[in-house]
Amino acid sequence: MLYKKLGRSGLKVSGVSIGSWTTFGESVDDDATLAVMEAAYDAGINFFDGAEGYGRGAAEEAMGRVFEKVNWPRDTLVISTKVFGFGDAPTQAGLSRKHLVEAVDAALRRMHLDYVDMCFCHRPDPDTPLDEIAHTMNELIARGKIFYWGTSEFSPGDLHQLHAIAERDGLVGPTMEQTCHSMLHRRRVDGELRPLFDAYGLGTTIYSPLCQGVLTGKYNEGFPKDSRFGRRDAESRKNAISNEDLARVRRLTMLAGDLGMTMTHLALAWCLKNPNVSTAITGSTRPEQVHENVKAADAVEKLTDEVMGRIEEILDNAPE
């Protein structure tokens, strides 16, 4: 397994990590969740990503039942939660001090943990001042409830302001941002966030590195009826993925074959090659998918400057 630093911090996370959105507690049962998490841990994956909003808490509850069964030393794991809310009352959502504190406590109860390693503000909250967010996150650090805090899909402007608040008030600023990144969606990591990497050493925990399966190559010859895109109508498929992107994936699949790897390996390895990507979050419902994804860590060394140049020529989509 390849381990990378979480931005400027000293924390090392597995390059490939496990997410829980739409899987744990929802589309897979407890036995499958246990099998996936055990396969991941045995393969060297140390980062498991949760959120209070995934299945309205069901994903974290499923992860908690696994943690109760296994005998993994807590100091070998990196566990996250993300906070924004899923309740109906106005105090059960957003990033107010009240909700942040209560949501972290609830996540710890769901996962049977004393602390989480990372806590993300799952989405921006225009109703809560950034000062309140930064100070509350630092209070949670001081209380030993979280070790690192970060954001997800925050604007560069808000991230600059959060770091300015931290510098002004002697606080710890956001260490990481969770955002979408893949060969086909590069706007954030390769564009908007680049100044923050240099200025603050921001880490990233990227999601959808395989672009909902498109970058596995399984749609190269069409859309199987039982697949995610096969169940959509033609118009929604057109809005989700363009013919140009499908053509890119077909050419990349040929390149992956020339390199002796699968399209999945190439797509994940390309993400991990980026020094500004700390970890690529993957979703798995079976151990076999975990085994396939972790092989990408070994494929990174095949992405020489010459190969990266060929990939860039095919993609031709780098943000300015």
Give structural notes.
There is one protein chain. The protein has a single domain, classed as TIM Barrel. Strands 3-4-5-6-7-8-9-10 form an eight-stranded parallel beta barrel, surrounded by four helices. Strands 1-2 form a two-stranded antiparallel ribbon. The model has no long low-confidence stretch (mean pLDDT 93). The longest helix is centred in the C-terminal third of the chain and has 16 residues. Helix 1 crosses helix 2, helix 2 crosses helix 3 and helix 4 crosses helix 5. It contains 13 helices and ten strands. It is α/β, with parallel strands linked by helices and 320 residues long. The chain is globular, with a radius of gyration of 19 Å.
What labels describe this entry?
globular, alpha/beta, eight-stranded parallel β-barrel, TIM Barrel
Average pLDDT works out at 93
The low-pLDDT segments are none
| Tally of individual domains | 1
- How big is the Rg? 19 Å
Helical amount among residues, as a percent range?
40-55%
Biggest sheet architecture: 8 strands, parallel, barrel
Assembly type of the chains comes to: single chain
Termini gap: 32 Å
- Walk across the major sheet and give the strand order: 3-4-5-6-7-8-9-10
* SSE ordering: EEEHEHEHEHEHEHHEHHHEHHH
Write out the CATH superfamily name. Answer: NADP-dependent oxidoreductase domain
What's the β-strand tally?
10
Shape: globular
> What structural category do the secondary elements indicate?
alpha/beta
Q: Which range does the strand content fall in?
A: 5-15%
CATH architecture: Alpha-Beta Barrel
